[in-house]
Design brief:
This protein is an alpha/beta fold and 310 residues long. Helix content is 39%, strand content 19%. It has eleven helices and ten strands. Strands 1, 2, 3, 4, 5, 6, 7, 8, 9 and 10 form a ten-stranded mixed sheet that branches. The longest helix has 24 residues.
C-alpha cells in the first residue's frame, strides 16, 4: 500500500537564523512521502538565500509581507498536493518519528480527521524549559477515549470545541490533518494577524470532525523573543476577535457560559497588559468597558490601580 503524501507547510518571516535547522528536522523524517512548502512572508533578512540552498528538496513561495501567518498558511494550503497536511513553524524542530506516527493513527482510525500531539518547550538556544508542554493542560484529557496503556486517544469534535473555548491545548506544529477538511471549513482567517490557528481548530471541531491526541513528544516548540507569545498587549485584539466570533454560532447553554467567561478573562487580561505596557488611559478604558458588562473584584482592583496616580 502506497504511503499517503504529507504536505508540510512552513510560514517563514525573517527566519534565516533558525529555518535551516527546522527544515533539516523535516527532511530527517523516517516517513518516506513528504513535500515541504516554505512560504516566505516578505522577509528582509537572508531567509530567501538560506532557502535557495535547498533547491528542489523544498517548494519555495515568496509573497509581499502580510504581517502574520494566516496568509502564508493559506498559500501553502492552496499549493499542497498531499492527502495529509502538517503545519509547522519556522523555528520549531520536528522529531524524526512525528509524521510516521501521525500517519499510523490515520490508518488505525479511519474516521479520525485531525491529529495533534504533546511537545517540548525549548529556549532560543535549544535548551529545554518545559519537558512536556501539555502536562499542565489537564481539562481536555477528560474528553479522550483511549484503550488502557495506549498513547492514542480519540476525541469527538464538539467535545474538543467546548474545551477550546476554555484554553488552546493544540500546538500548531503538532497538527496533521486531512486535506479534505479544509474543503468544508475553508481557509485561515486572513483578517487575523495572530490566533488564526486556534480559530481554525475551533472551526474544525465545531464542524464535527473527529480528533486524535497523541500523548507523545513529537516536536520542540521554540520560544523566541520576537514570537507572538511575547507580544504583550498587542496580541490580545486578534485573540479577542477570534473568540468573539463564536458568539455567532448556535451554542448549548454550557458552551455559551464557557464562552462568556473566556471573553471576560481575556478582556481583563488585555486591560492588565495595557497597564503593564504603560498605557494607563487605555487600561482604564478597557477596565470600564469590562465592568459595564460584568462586575468583578479583578476588574474593580485593576481600574482603581490605573485611576490612582503613581
Amino acid at each position: 500500500m502506497e504511503s499517503p503524501l504529507v504536505s508540510v507547510i512552513i510560514p517563514a518571516y525573517n527566519a534565516a537564523v533558525l529555518v535551516a535547522e527546522t527544515i533539516d528536522s523535516v527532511l530527517a523524517q523516517n516517513y518516506p512521502s513528504v513535500e515541504i512548502l516554505v512560504v516566505d512572508d516578505g522577509s528582509t533578512d537572508e531567509t530567501a538565500k538560506v532557502l535557495q540552498c535547498y533547491g528542489d528538496r523544498i517548494r519555495y513561495f515568496h509573497q509581499e509581507n502580510w504581517g502574520g501567518p494566516s496568509r502564508p498558511r493559506n498559500v501553502g494550503l492552496r499549493n499542497a498536493t498531499g492527502e495529509l497536511v502538517a503545519f509547522f513553524d519556522a523555528d520549531d524542530l520536528m522529531a524524526p518519528e512525528k509524521l510516521q506516527t501521525a500517519v499510523d493513527v490515520f490508518e488505525r482510525f479511519p474516521k479520525v480527521d485531525f491529529t495533534f500531539s504533546s511537545f517540548r518547550g525549548i529556549q532560543e538556544d535549544g535548551a529545554t524549559h518545559r519537558a512536556d508542554f501539555l502536562e499542565r493542560y489537564q481539562n481536555f484529557r477528560s474528553e479522550i477515549q483511549s484503550e488502557e496503556g495506549s498513547t492514542i486517544g480519540v476525541m469527538a469534535g464538539r467535545a474538543v470545541f467546548r474545551q477550546l473555548l476554555g484554553a488552546n491545548f493544540i500546538g500548531t506544529s503538532s497538527v496533521v490533518c486531512r486535506r479534505s477538511v479544509f474543503d468544508q471549513v475553508g481557509e485561515f482567517d486572513e483578517s487575523m494577524l495572530n490566533a488564526d490557528d486556534v480559530d481554525m481548530w475551533r472551526r474544525i471541531a465545531y464542524a464535527g470532525y473527529q480528533f486524535a491526541f497523541i500523548d507523545e513528544i513529537l516536536h520542540s516548540y521554540r520560544k523566541t523573543a520576537g514570537g507572538i507569545s511575547a507580544g504583550g498587549a498587542k496580541r490580545y485584539p486578534a485573540i479577542l476577535s477570534g473568540i468573539r466570533k463564536q458568539l455567532q454560532l448556535e451554542l448549548e447553554a454550557d458552551e455559551r457560559a464557557l464562552l462568556n467567561d473566556k471573553i471576560n478573562q481575556l478582556e481583563l487580561g488585555y486591560a492588565a497588559a495595557l497597564g503593564l505596557g504603560g498605557d494607563r488611559a487605555a487600561a482604564r478604558r478597557v477596565y470600564r468597558e469590562v465592568l459595564a458588562k460584568k462586575v468583578s473584584w479583578t476588574g474593580i482592583k485593576g481600574l482603581v490601580k490605573y485611576v490612582l496616580p503613581g
